[in-house]
Amino acid sequence: MTPTGVAPATNGEVPARAETPASDASGSASGSAPGSTPGTSPGRWTTGELATLLRAELIGPDNIRIARLDALERADEATLTFIRDARNAERWASSRAAAAIVSRKVEATPGEGRALLIVQDADHALIEVLELLTPASHKPTGVSPRAFVDPTAQVDPTVSVGAGASIGPRSRVGAGAVIHANVSIGADVTIGPECELRSGVVVEDRCVLGARVRLHPNCVIGSDGFGYRPSKDGAGLVKIPHAGHVEIGDDAEIGSGTTIDRGKFGATTVGAGTKIDNLVQIGHNCRIGRSCIICGCCAMAGSVTIGDGSVLAGGVGVADNIVIGARAKVGARSGVMDNIPDGETWVGYPAAPWKQTMRIVAATKQLPELVTEVRRVMKFAQGGEQPPSKS
Q: Residue 40 — left, alpha, or beta (φ > 0 → left; ψ -120 to 50 → alpha)?
């Protein structure tokens, strides 16, 4: 079967479609007239143009030229910064920044020769600015002559495949997907429309990606689960086969170096809209809900369930078969060894409700004085001279 829109070659490789020149990666709007959407080059923005772009209330001059975006402490006279809370507002007075995007709930005054752009939410407005500032990443166009696409694979004609990439037997790749250099896609894999797989990604056999999934460099989807049993004679270990797969929902994003193991039977699942940071380990048969956030260096043992909208901060470890409820939050470096109900915040090692953990921490700080007092009492009880009472 010939891949859709790709001509077969006798050596099993796929000849390239005609490649079109890449568009200007800077995304700049050179020559744009005043009042049009500002470009990304230094000096192209004025505070008036930014106010229009962000639908912001402008307090201060509308003709200040903005060259760059940076934090308050690193700002200079041509810098746009942002103020999300009262603490940042206090630092604004001593900052050299020319202008700031400010959340409406925060009280701030521009000062002489400076401007404030008042918006409902400074963080959301900042995203709009960053989208204009961030240069488009390089993407392959067409199918590289150095890519390999199995003749039985179905690849939409609009798919781009970089050099060294490989697409296995009977796999399907949807419209508009971008497969960067050196990506490996196994057999019977489904890649949904408009997915982007960055360099070095591995998607093993039978795994399924929904639409617009983004996989960052060197993440692995569908590796074997970590399962072994002692051999019958007790002299070694027997590997447990993992016959399942991985399913990732629409609009999910998986960070660099993250590994998601396939199910022992059935699927390991990641819900739509979930964002997973770099260097995360997700064990076999985990079920992660929709719109979760899992920060870097988290590790989940097998068959963990995480409810919709939950947040795991950096370095959280979760024991096998644990259930973390919807909208729960787990603090950084916590070790989760018990189920967490919906909506609760747990921290610590082992993790517990945060108020309980804070009481434990506060009590721990008093241990040196408590030990001293216990020694005094024990000495007296043993017939020693009673030390002076504490004042």
A: alpha
Task: Return d(Cα 33, Cα 49) in angstroms, integer.
Answer: 11
By the 8 A CB rule, do 26 and 135 touch? yes
| Element of type H or E holding 285 | none
Q: Phi/psi of residue 18, each to 5°?
A: -60, 125
Query: Which residues are catalytic, by number?
Result: 284
CA distances from 189 to 107, 183, 192, 200, 205 (A): 53, 13, 10, 16, 6
Range(s) of the chain covered by CATH 2.160.10.10: 201-350
The secondary structure of residue 340, as a DSSP letter, is B
Return d(Cα 322, Cα 312) in angstroms, integer.
14
Backbone angles phi, psi at 302, to 5 degrees: -65, 150
pLDDT tens-digit readout, 67-119: 989 999 999 999 999 999 999 999 999 999 999 999 999 999 999 999 999 99
With CA atoms as reference, report the closest residue to 174 among 182, 185, 263, 164.
Answer: 185
To the question of pTM greater than 0.85 for the whole model, the response is no
On whether the CB atoms of residues 133 and 67 are closer than 8 A, the answer is no
Question: d(Cα 299, Cα 301) in Å, to the nearest integer?
Answer: 7
> Lowest-pLDDT range, 128-137, 259-268, 269-278?
128-137
Q: How far does the chain reach from its first CA to its final CA, in angstroms?
A: 90
Q: For residue 387, what is the enclosing H or E element? A: none
Q: Which amino acid is at 99?
A: A
For residue 338, give the 3-state DSSP assignment.
coil
Q: Is the pLDDT of residue 3 over 60?
A: no
Confidence label for 20 from pLDDT (cuts 50, 70 and 90): very low
Start and end residues for every CATH 3.40.1390.10 domain found in the chain: 45-133
Amino acid identity for residue 286 in this structure: C
CATH class of the 201-350 domain in this structure: mainly beta
How far is residue 82's CA from residue 54's CA, in Å, rounded to a whole number? 13
In contact, 255 and 277? CB cutoff 8 Å: yes
In the block, residue with structure tokens 């086969």 = 241
CA 305 – CA 182 distance, rounded (Å): 32
Give the strand pairing for 190-191 and 172-173.
Answer: parallel
Q: Are 100 and 117 in contact (CB under 8 A)?
A: yes
Which class is 45-133 in CATH? alpha beta
